[in-house]
Amino acid sequence: MANSDAIPSHVHVALLPSSGVGHLLPFLRLAASLIRHRCSVTLITTHPIVSSAESQLLSTFLSVFPQVTEKKFTLIAIDPTSANTTDPFFLQWETIRRSAHLLSPLLSSSSPPLSFIVTDVTLMSSVISVTENICLPNYTLFTASARMLSLVSCFPSIPSSIPKASLPPSLLDTESFLTKDLSENGKCVKRSDGVLINTFEELEKETLEMLSTKGLPTVFPLGPLLPLEFEGLRHWSGLRTKGRALSFMSASGSKIVDKEEKGADLDEILGHQVMNKVKNNDGFVVNQWVDQRRILSHKAVGGFMSHCGWNSVIEAAWHGIPVLGWPQHGDQMINGEVMEAAGWGLCMKTWGWGLNNHLVKGEEIGDKIKELMENQMVRTKAAIISEAAQKSSESVGSCHNMVKLFQSFKKN
Q1: pTM to 2 decimals?
Q2: Which family does it belong to (predicted)?
Q3: Which of 333, 318, 293, 341 is nearest to 397 (CA)?
Q4: pLDDT surpassing 60 at residue 406
Q5: Class of the 246-389 domain?
Q6: Catalytic pick from 5, 10, 12, 23?
Q7: Please, where are the H alpha helices in 146-196?
């Protein structure tokens, strides 16, 4: 392993993820990277867990990495009506925050003593005071793009580099849960000892350089944080492999797409007519988390229609797959703009946000998929960004920045 001699011995890192698979996965991938760098890792899991997908991921991860210590953190029950949200994942964020004062004995009793903790950005506003009181260095893991971090670092102000239209409606509502959450946590990120982010310099070089002038602690681009072998369900066998003619469509976060009720029927969710058309064209639909790494690496796949969650954007970059972005909520429009600016895809800003009443006809979607997959310039850019992503995972990229992280901890 490159530069391993530069890493201090006996480094013990605690990881505190938030809720939602999109937040959990970067922590598990970071944990695997820390283990490769010969660190001891403690994973703090919050209970009860919101979704079966998270529970399954955690269980599998801990069985694959038995050297990771799990510390269960039982949360205080709160009155949901006091949280200004009905979203189950936002409710969990709020529950974790209101329970954060109970973390102190859990962190102080770790053996060997913790070197530092990495906290999800959505929890920083309540956890930072706890770690300051016990003199434990606290690093933020930011689970979106550096471009999104440029917004969070100054929110509720909006930097001139980000159009107001790139923000979801919920962030334009000053009373919404997401607006208040982003504002509080953005301020507290500046009190952390550093910001870890799943990006790489070749993808967001200008933004990363700009962030270094904004009064933030040091930003460490550790990406791409690579998917682990066990992630997702394997429903992607038997594809034809002559040429790159298939498009992969993925969405998450929608209460329609992510329906988890027992007995949920795909015909009910998507409609019988849609399901028949998919099946008649040798396609299929899965309403569970899949092994996206295996899908994107399959040589039959020539395009990826994505909501532009940051994990998906980074995975598409790694595999060199052109992206047709249809952002649905949160940071996804901003992430899609990063992808589009780098030239390896299209971000459909005119199709509106996911759960509004704007109708996009199937013919228009089909035309855009065809345009994406026939665009040779986009394919060339995708290949270039893939090469850059893979080089970044070597010693000149994320490993080098991991060493810089350890050196900053040693100075602290």
Answers
A1: 0.86
A2: Belongs to the UDP-glycosyltransferase family.
A3: 318
A4: yes
A5: alpha beta
A6: 23
A7: 146-152, 177-189
